[in-house]
Amino acid sequence: IGGDSLMKFHKWVKPEVISAYTTLLAAGRNGYTKEELDTQAQNLMTNFGTKVFFIEMPEMVISSNAIRSFCKVQQYDAIQTMVPETVFRYIMEQELWKCPRN
Q1: pTM for this predicted structure
Q2: Strand ranges inside 1-102, DSSP E
Q3: Which H helix or E strand runs over 80?
Q4: If we measure between CA atoms, which residue out of 50, 48, 47, 7 comes closest to residue 27?
């Protein structure tokens, strides 16, 4: 997940359940400092037992928030240009974020 999602993870539905079954891989993004992300990771560990590992990768301008927004307004062409074809098909087939099937 991106740093922006890490900072909001405590607001996700059942973060304690997600934390019990997963380890989060987080990439810094959206202007958060390493110290802010480290503090959030520690807070999540304390409150939910969340294990967070940070990964380094080039910053991407694509976000799940943007994809969800395009789904809401049915701009599927925009989504298709943002992700690989297999990911696009999966989003559409599984109706992620309420995208209807093509």
Answers
A1: 0.67
A2: 23-27, 51-55
A3: helix 76-82
A4: 7
